[in-house]
Specification:
about 45% helix, about 20% strand, two-stranded parallel sheet, Rossmann fold, binds NADP nicotinamide-adenine-dinucleotide phosphate
Length: about 240
């Protein structure tokens, strides 16, 4: 059985992943800031005891302290993230931009700094990005840029970590029903449940896939549109998403 650390475990996809890995008998370390929710997760667990760690992924001292007792990890799923939109591009919200890049990208660097030394040959790093990087979408300047950076990071560390026999799985989910997307007021085609998303991630990580994207009917559609000449896809996107 593997020792699996999951960030963003207090909600949405991360919470569903905790249940999925516990159900399969793995040792899970669930991480998040919300201590009440972490305690509730532990109480609800009727399989193996769940280890929970409460820390903010943007604070290096907090991460260092929280993970100091962990000796070794087989799988880390860096899933915690945030999404906010730039509503008025002409008065570009630089603090929103900074916050999103900080949580979705800079914090991943902090987590890798403290967690990679605990990983050995055969272990796996899973980075939860987004299908938003397949095709730039309006109002998603901050979120999309943070996840595009994460894609590059994943594809680059995969090359370096292969020398240590550590795998990297990059995940591009489409729309998943979670508190993060509950805030959205626009149409979210082919939205799936967090249980479905967690099950797809679990299967893909088990198969040591380098890249996961789902649901395919949505991600292939985005990939197809992205192949059109730029003026055409930009016109299409501007017309269909407001
Ligand atoms: N839902 C979708 O449609 C969708 C699509 C593509 C990609 N994704 C990606 O999937 C991941 C999970 O999204 P979700 O939809 O499950 O979101 P969610 O329900 O809002 O959950 C976000 C999680 O991230 C944690 N988190 C946020 N900021 C944190 C911080 N500073 N320190 C520690 N933990 C923090 C939250 O925990 P605490 O509040 O306890 O700290 C929470 O557990 C994200 O990276 C998101 O970008 C989601």
């Amino acid at each position: 059985m593997s020792k699996v650390l999951i960030t963003g475990a207090t909600s949405g996809i991360g919470e569903a992943l905790v249940h999925q890995y516990l159900k399969q008998g793995h040792d899970v370390i669930a991480c998040g800031r919300n201590q009440e929710k972490l305690a509730q997760l532990s109480d609800d667990t009727d399989t193996k005891p769940l280890l929970t760690l409460s820390f903010d992924i943007t604070k290096t001292a907090d991460i260092e302290q929280a993970v100091s007792d962990i000796k070794q990890l087989d799988i880390i799923i860096l899933n915690a993230g945030d999404c906010e939109y730039i509503d008025d591009v002409t008065s570009f919200n630089n603090s929103l931009f900074q916050h999103i890049i900080n949580v979705n990208l800079i914090a991943i660097g902090h987590l890798l700094h403290f967690l990679l030394p605990k990983m050995t040959s055969g272990s796996q790093v899973v980075l939860v990005s987004s299908s938003v990087t397949i095709l730039p979408l309006p109002r998603a300047e901050a979120y999309g840029a943070s996840k595009a950076g994460l894609d590059y990071l994943a594809n680059s560390i995969r090359i370096d970590l292969s020398k240590h026999n550590i795998g990297v799985t990059l995940v591009h989910p489409g729309f998943v029903e979670t508190p993060l997307t509950d805030k959205n007021t626009f149409d979210m085609p082919f939205k799936i449940t967090s249980i479905d998303a967690a099950s797809r991630i679990y299967q893909g990580v088990k198969a040591k896939k380098s890249y996961l994207h789902f649901p395919k009917r949505f991600t292939y559609l985005l990939k197809l549109i992205a192949m059109l000449p730029a003026p055409l896809w930009q016109w299409l996107i501007a017309r269909s998403i407001r």
